[in-house]
Amino acid sequence: MTILPVIRRLAADEIGQKVEELSDLLIDCVEGGASVGFMQPLAREKARAFWRAIGSRAAAGAHEVLAAEIGDFLVGSVQLVGAQYENQPHRADVSKLLVHRRARRRGLGRALMEAAEDLAREAGKTVLVLDTAGDEARRLYERLNWTIVGRVPDYALWPDGRLCDTTIMFKRVEMRD
């Protein structure tokens, strides 16, 4: 029997309440080699500070956080970052797709991305943008009909300190009736 995850938007106060679980998720992904902005080893306090800042941005309406949970276990998250400039009200960035290593290969990445697209659609966003360093993530996005814009060599570092390229991608989100 497969237990399906529940994917839901976290309100800003819930992000604060789930800082430890969200930090566990982020630390697990960084330990697993994900290039998501942090180096190994990721200190718990740095992970907590990151999620507290995201909670503040969510309270200000600048970020949306979706979480995937199986029972009481937070197994994944993704963020939708609203346009930062007044000439881009139709655009959002998808950021930090995280899936716990113990929960991978179950369609959680796909489910989180589809939920992020639905959330963007509800907010009237028609263009989504993301960047990714990992080949596995890039393949997921391509399967979800994201378009590659280009690749930037030596854009960032893997958590172990090696240089990594990043692929810039976009997707048009069609409004539904």
Number of strands: 7
Provide the CATH topology of the domain at 6-125.
Aminopeptidase
Neighbour order of strands in the largest sheet:
1-2-3-4-5-7-6
The second-level CATH architecture of the domain at 6-125 is 3-Layer(aba) Sandwich
Helix count? 5
Give the DSSP E fraction (strand runs of 2 or more residues): 25-35%
CATH class value of the domain at 6-125: Alpha Beta
Shape: globular
Structural class: alpha+beta
Main sheet: strands, sense, barrel? 7 strands, mixed
CATH homologous superfamily descriptor of the domain at 6-125: Gcn5-related N-acetyltransferase (GNAT)
Rg over C-alpha atoms, rounded to the nearest angstrom: 16 Å
Helix content: 25-40%
Parts with pLDDT < 50 across at least 5 consecutive residues: none
